[in-house]
Amino acid sequence: MYCSNCGLKIKEKQIEKALENDSININDINYLAKSLTSVRKFEYRTKILEAKETDKENQNKVKKEAKKEFETQKEVISSKLAANDIQYFKDELKVKNQRDVNTLDYYVCPRCGKLVRPNLDENDIKSLARASHSEIHRGRNNISSGMCSLMIGIILFIIGLMFFALSFKATAGGILVTDCVEFYVFIALVTLGAILIVFGIASFIYGRNKVKRNEALLKDIQNGVFHQ
Hints:
The chain contains 6 helices and 4 strands. The longest helix is centred in the middle third of the chain and has 45 residues, at 122-166. Helices cover 69% and strands 4% of the residues. With 228 residues, the protein is mainly α. The model has no long low-confidence stretch (mean pLDDT 82). A two-stranded antiparallel ribbon has the order 1-2.
């Protein structure tokens, strides 16, 4: 399952945990109010994004109107919360006593707050494609930063080994001296180098996996996998 707004791949365990959490908090008005606020916030962001893409001339006007509407909706949510009107939130969120994977909007994306649906329409698919391109760009940035960290880490590690060699003092008969400045510099450089190497490798693998996953997702979109 993918979020059509930000491209985040959501694991089945995350979905199951969210469903369980929803079930537990079905009568918690604070939980429902927070969920509804997230939904309204996403709708506000969507209107601004659509205006940027389709109505550039009036996008500032649309942005102001959308912001005003969002502020009004937040005030309504606050008033309903203060009045303890739990039924209002259940109606707005279309809460059911039994929610499952076939429910139309059954999961809130942990990254962007969008309601994730299993049956995507044409606009969702286009949005997912844009999100996939963004994720590929982020993945390539992860790869670049990982490679830089790896190279710097290796250089520091090698320099640290040089200082380790200098820790064998000729004045001490070629024996390793552990209380000299060179040995302390060796410890610091090797430690920092090792951290950068581990971070670089992890970042490279993470970025590469992200790129591969989203390239496969784009291929699925082109092949019409998500079309009903």
